[in-house]
Amino acid sequence: MASKKRVLSGMRATGKLHLGHLVGALENWVKLQEQYQCFFFVADWHALTTDYADTRGIPENTIQMVTDWLAAGLDPQKSVLFLQSRILEHAELHLLFSMITPLGWLERVPSYKEQREQIRDKDLGTYGFLGYPVLQAADILIYRAHYVPVGEDQAPHVELTREVARRFNTTYSKVFPEPDVLLTPTPKLPGLDGRKMSKSYGNTIELGDAPEAIRQKVSTMLTDPQRVRRSDPGRPEICPVFGFHRRYSPAEVVAQVDADCRTAGIGCVDCKALMAAHLITALAPIQERRRAYESKPQQVWEILVEGSKKAQRSARATMRQVRKAMGMVYPAAAGPAGRAGKRPQRKQAPVTETPTVTPQ
Ligand code: TRP
Ligand code: SF4
Question: Which of 75, 141, 195, 290 has its CA 20 to 30 A from that of 93?
Answer without folding.
Answer: 75
